[in-house]
Amino acid sequence: MSSHEISEAEDKLPEERGAESAVRLAEDPFADPGLPPHEHRVQDIDERAARRSERTVALLFTVSMVATIAFIAAYVALPVDKYIYVFPIGHISALNFALGVTLGIALFTIGAGAVHWARTLMSDEEIADERHPIEASPEVKSKVLDDFRAGAKESGFGRRKLARNTLFGALALVPLSGVVLLRDLGPLPGTKLRHTKWAKGKRLMNYNTMQPLRPEDISVGSLTFAMPEGMSEEQHDFQTEIAKAALMLVRLQPENIKDKRELDWSHEGIVAFSKICTHVGCPINLYEQQTHHVLCPCHQSTFDLSDGGRVIFGPAGHALPQLRIRANDQGYLEAMGDFPEPVGPAYWERG
């Protein structure tokens, strides 16, 4: 409004201004436009088109079922360490790629099938309802139930058996993906914790030089670390296996060995014990030459290598396992088998 019009409006009496406002409100510029006339879809008037849509929905649900089965098959069949090249991503885990693609297809086709069903087969007529009090009267309850029955009937859920049954199949199979993934809580260890890479005839390799050890390589009072022949840091499971197979060698005077079995399993005073502490699995590397004790640096568990590796101090629960060794025909030290018991910390399955 201009300043002149504002001045004129202020000069009018209050009752005159009120009458003009009432006229403007009566015109109601935001009147309810109502709903446009309902337009029927081709599926509403042509049963053949409706059946085509039903078959499309069923196909999507069937694809979901197949993708779920493929997800489970890939999870079981594909190795964890297999990699493939996928453009433009690059090299990725074949297992992760297969799981992602199959599960994505399974979930997407369920959603696409449900959307296609709703858009082509269920009723799409818009209904306006007046607002009502929050409390539900008997008439409202009856109306809700009637609307539910009418919606269920119009959805074709009872009549479109093909779409309904394939939906049930897809929804029943998809949860199996989650059930199968429970396997990753860990496979059961089986007997893996009871065995290492040591076996009869495997030579003792110097951990630092990677050369086979001879008795003369180990002097009295020295501490030498060894690992089984055939292991390499390039192997994918090296860290897992060396955590069980790591070995320490000490040469003692035979008359200083107190335990008879330890003496029988040694070679010219050379004794071989697991390097893995029996408390929480730390590597032992501190040796006291005068006492023949080894000390774990983590929690100070102390073991006597002249008396069967028994615990003399600290929280470790049992003695260090000993490896039986000998010298072969070529003069190299070799194992005469695996450790007689699991190495490292105790666990509840330990026998």
From TrEMBL:
Major location (coarse): membrane
Cofactor list: [2Fe-2S] cluster
Annotated membrane topology: Multi-pass membrane protein
One GO location term (cellular component): plasma membrane
Molecular function as annotated in GO: 2 iron, 2 sulfur cluster binding; metal ion binding; monooxygenase activity; oxidoreductase activity, acting on paired donors, with incorporation or reduction of molecular oxygen
Keyword Lyase annotated: no
InterPro entries named among the record's database cross-references: QcrA_N (IPR045603), Rieske_2Fe-2S (IPR017941), Rieske_2Fe-2S_sf (IPR036922), Rieske_Fe-S_prot (IPR014349), Rieske_Fe-S_prot_C (IPR005805)
Record field: transmembrane: 57-77, 97-118, 162-182
Subunit structure: The cytochrome bc1 complex is composed of a cytochrome b (QcrB), the Rieske iron-sulfur protein (QcrA) and a diheme cytochrome c (QcrC) subunit.
Family statement drawn from the similarity comment of this UniProt entry: Belongs to the Rieske iron-sulfur protein family.
Function description: Iron-sulfur subunit of the cytochrome bc1 complex, an essential component of the respiratory electron transport chain required for ATP synthesis. The bc1 complex catalyzes the oxidation of menaquinol and the reduction of cytochrome c in the respiratory chain. The bc1 complex operates through a Q-cycle mechanism that couples electron transfer to generation of the proton gradient that drives ATP synthesis.
Stored PANTHER family: CYTOCHROME B-C1 COMPLEX SUBUNIT RIESKE, MITOCHONDRIAL
Name of this chain's protein: Cytochrome bc1 complex Rieske iron-sulfur subunit
